[in-house]
From TrEMBL:
Superkingdom, natural source: Bacteria
Residues in Peptidase M16 C-terminal domain copies: 182-354
Signal peptide: none
NCBIfam families named in the record: YfmH_fam
Record-linked InterPro entries: Metalloenz_LuxS/M16, MPP/UQCRC_Complex, Pept_M16_N, Peptidase_M16_C
The Peptidase M16 N-terminal domain, residue ranges: 63-175
Name of the protein in its database record: Pitrilysin family protein
């Protein structure tokens, strides 16, 4: 990109970023003219954080604690946070991923009051054995619901095949058996270790000022001295745990997943290269994808994605197909062709421009803007750094990455077959 367009891009992704004395990162993108506000209060604590030390004391958790804690944060001694948000007219929600938990709301009125609710509900946890037991039943039903999702089963199947010890092998929500082990003491340990300002971000976008956000932080009286937490990840060999997994469930079509285990990468540029590789292998603009689709071998949802976490890095190519073995073979052939011939220059440029467009499109509404700001915190870099990293990526660097990545010997295959109806 030329300097002038790059300056315009930098201006588009600009936000006000501050770190408070207690360590909380505050990111604000005032958007005058918009009617609403979207706020995200998030912590670097997800389903893979099962072993840690807090203030020098070792804590071990069963699978599913981060997700369980997300649910419990909406409860307090003086009522349910959802009910409080309803009174301000705000729409609230939350989610847990492998490496983070986020609480959020969207509002067009009484924004200050909604910010107070958001900050206080996370800052003032309340757990009892009785409320935990009640939640175990609720989340148990949610776990069973995910068991019926083919997309989720293909992903968890691939993680289980690719990794020997890494906690990505566990379902984010855990199992009915694992969440039955949760105690109030465990949840308070998690709050002390991860729900402290130095490990958190408050990202806000929309019709609001930075002064409003800072005033809400001051009213919340957040902890002044964060606890010292140290994550502990198990050792993970380079080999895959299992090369193949096949099982059946209620499906209309077979579902294929091909995963590749990689050495963890670091930095915005390396991650952007990996993201681009998924598009260059079988993205919607490739001849390979169009050929598969035109032949009726895959559905429109077939594609790839890249995931990087602490101690984990992998590519996943998934989708429905009536001929999973054939599509797997064609995918491996296409990867080998790209490795030998290199990436097409025109396609590389199209994918790069598409990435620019997606980054800028994420800043056109308040929800995506706040999500992009929070995401930059979790990735430990700014949006401007990501844009500049994308601008510097070359086709030659992608070709070099393909020489060492997506290797057959570090791959696993999962196929889910439609369950055959039993004869009456």
């Amino acid at each position: 990109m030329q300097n002038e367009p790059m300056q315009a891009v930098r201006a588009a992704v600009a936000c006000e970023a501050l770190t408070l004395e207690n360590g909380l990162t505050v990111l604000v993108r005032p958007m005058p003219g918009y009617s609403g506000v979207h706020a995200i209060y998030g912590t670097r604590f997800g389903s893979i954080d099962l072993e840690f030390e807090v203030d020098g004391r070792r804590v071990s958790l069963p699978a599913g604690v981060a997700h369980f804690l997300e649910h419990k944060m909406f409860e307090s001694e003086d009522g349910d946070a959802f009910a409080k948000f309803a009174k301000t007219g705000a729409s609230a929600n939350a989610y847990t991923s492998f490496d983070k938990t986020c609480y959020l709301f969207t509002a067009t009125q009484q924004v200050d009051e909604s910010l107070d609710i958001l900050l206080s509900m996370v800052n003032e946890p309340y757990f009892t054995k009785e409320t935990i037991q009640k939640e175990q039943g609720i989340i148990g039903q949610e776990i069973k619901m995910y068991d019926d999702s083919q997309d989720w089963r293909i992903m968890t199947g691939l993680f289980g095949c690719l990794y020997h010890n890494h906690p990505i092998r566990n379902d984010i929500a855990g199992t009915v058996e694992s969440i039955a082990q949760i105690t109030p003491e465990m949840l308070y340990d998690c709050c002390k270790g991860f729900y402290n300002p130095g490990n958190m971000v408050l990202a806000v976008a929309g019709n609001i000022t930075t002064d409003q956000v800072l005033a809400a932080c001051k009213r919340a009286k957040l902890p002044a001295k964060p606890a010292q937490v140290k994550r502990i990840q198990p050792q993970e060999p380079e080999t895959v745990a299992k090369e193949r997994l096949e099982f059946s469930m209620q499906l209309a079509k077979p579902c294929l997943g091909v995963g590749f285990k990689e050495t963890p990468v670091e930095g915005a540029k390396a991650e952007i290269i990996c993201d681009m590789i998924t598009e260059l292998v079988c993205g919607g603009m490739t001849d390979f994808y169009r050929s598969l689709y035109d032949q009726g071998l895959v559905n429109p949802g077939f594609g790839g994605e890249f995931l990087v976490l602490d101690g984990c890095c992998c590519f996943l190519f998934t989708g429905e197909t009536d001929q999973p073995e054939k599509v797997r073979g064609l995918l491996l052939d296409e990867i080998e062709r790209l490795r030998k011939e290199g990436v097409n220059e025109e396609l590389f440029t199209l994918c790069k421009n598409q990435s620019y467009g997606e980054m800028l499109q994420d800043l056109e509404n308040i929800e995506d803007s706040a999500t992009a700001l929070a995401g930059s915190f979790f990735r430990k870099r700014s949006l401007t750094e990501e844009i500049e990293a994308l601008a510097s990526v070359t086709r030659q660097e992608v070709d070099e990455a393909l020489q060492t990545m997506l290797r057959l010997e570090r791959s696993s295959t999962v196929i889910i077959w439609p369950k055959q109806e039993e004869n009456a």
